[in-house]
Amino acid sequence: MKKSLGLVIFLALSICAAIAQQNIKTPKAVLDQFMDKRFGMFIHFGPVTQRGTEIGWSRNKEVAQADYDNLYHEFNPTLFNADEWVKTAKDAGMKYLVITAKHHDGFCLWPTAYSDYNISKSPFKRDIVGELATACKKQGVTFCIYLTVLDWHDPDYPIHNPYDSTKNVKGDMPAFKTRMKNELKEVITKYKPFMLWFDGYWEKPWTKEDGQEIYQYIKSVDPDVITNNRLGKISDKLGGDAVGDFLTPEQTIGKLNMNEPWESCITICNQWAWKPNDQMKSLKECIRTLVTTASGNGNLLFNIGPAMDGHMEARQVVRMKEMGAWLKQYGESIYSTKGGPYVPNEVYGATRKGNKVYLHIFTRKDGILTIPALKNVKIVKAYFMNGNAVIVKQDNNSYTIDLPQVLPDENCSVIVLELDKNAIEIPVVPVKA
Ligand code: FHN
């Protein structure tokens, strides 16, 4: 009798533990810490940079499959310097860095024990992921890793590329996921990433259940590791078919969302991986992209594609420094802020922290800034950040501010409104276009 009671209790406790394990979620405090960072560097890099075509997507298209899959034999980015890459991110004011450790072409930028298709088999041999992790730790930049859930090179994955010439490939998804788990345990324990940026959710072989299995596996290795929502089957929602912690609108600035963490990933040029003479965004567009993202309560993951020899293009390094110079002056209005209360628009974007609202002015228009008045709020003080006082006139429903002939910053000026209350209490204010 006693024995069977003990068995029942043991089984009950095991079931509770299993259910608890199934529902481990990233602690809110860790997600808040991530969202406070506001600005990160995305790096797409791999042997395909030797062709200047898109990573993964050019395989069996601009680059014949057999050619593409042998590029690693020539891959020797001798100008790669992890400290320099991380310094470029830091000089830009970026607080975290995400490296494509394994993109859809399956090549691993770290010497994994679970696939021979990795950096140690190239002439370069060095552990790019490991050197970046060390450099990030040294320079105080948060280290993160991109991994794909589709791998067109891995025979166990049932699709060999989007232009696949090998039809009816069976693959072996259980074996594929076992390898993924081994690689995840390897990179989490070895490089201690703050966040894992998954990608490749859209193909048929990958299911939401696979994503849930991998999410829980990650949590069993390190419960604090954040993942984006691309372990599931969608990128613009949480819950439902999504699996993961934050939304990931791509090549677009997400809409204002005060309830769910989100991060826009956007390229500084057009291509994710390096492309010779690719068109690069202007400084004004780069700053406006960052400000509009923060004004919508989101993070910006801004992508650089280093060249085949491992150097980052000088023009992109300069652009990063220019963004960093703007953030040195105005970073208080970006880092650790919340978006709103105004919905971002063509003329301005707003962020808030404590009793301050930061109005980011993108254009002088006709010299008068007219914005909806904030209800039940008193503006105690108003001034250009790091500058002169500003006069705010109020009629019933609007504030009007006469702008100077020349705004303090040609890319984005910031007006601070100091209020008689905590700005986060203010409901979101829609703005008529
Ligand atoms: O196919 C990838 C693409 O190469 C790039 O990595 C982007 C980055 O978010 N994600 C996928 C396209 O949605």
Which range best describes the helical content: under 10%, 10-25%, 25-40%, 40-55%, 55-70% or over 70%? 25-40%
Biggest β-sheet, characterized? 7 strands, parallel
- Small molecules held by this entry: ligand FHN
Characterize the overall form.
Answer: globular
Report the CATH superfamily of the largest domain. Answer: Glycosidases
What does this structure look like?
This protein is an alpha/beta fold. The chain folds into two domains: 20-333, Glycosidases (TIM Barrel); 339-425, Sandwich (Immunoglobulin-like). It contains nine helices and 15 strands. The protein has helices at 2-22, 28-37, 65-68, 82-91, 128-139, 173-191, 208-221, 283-295, 314-330, and strands spanning 39-43, 96-102, 142-148, 195-199, 226-227, 263-267, 299-304, 338-339, 348-353, 356-361, 368-372, 379-384, 392-394, 398-402, 413-419. It has a seven-stranded parallel β-sheet. A five-stranded antiparallel β-sheet has the order 8-9-10-15-12. Strand 3, helix 6 (173-191) and strand 4 (195-199) form a beta-alpha-beta unit. Helix 4 packs across helix 5, helix 4 (82-91) crosses helix 9 and helix 6 runs parallel beside helix 7. It starts with a helix and ends in a 14-residue tail after the last strand. The structure holds ligand FHN. Ligand FHN is lined by residues 55-56, 199, 250, 265, 272. Ligand FHN binds at residues 55-56, 199, 250, 265, 272.
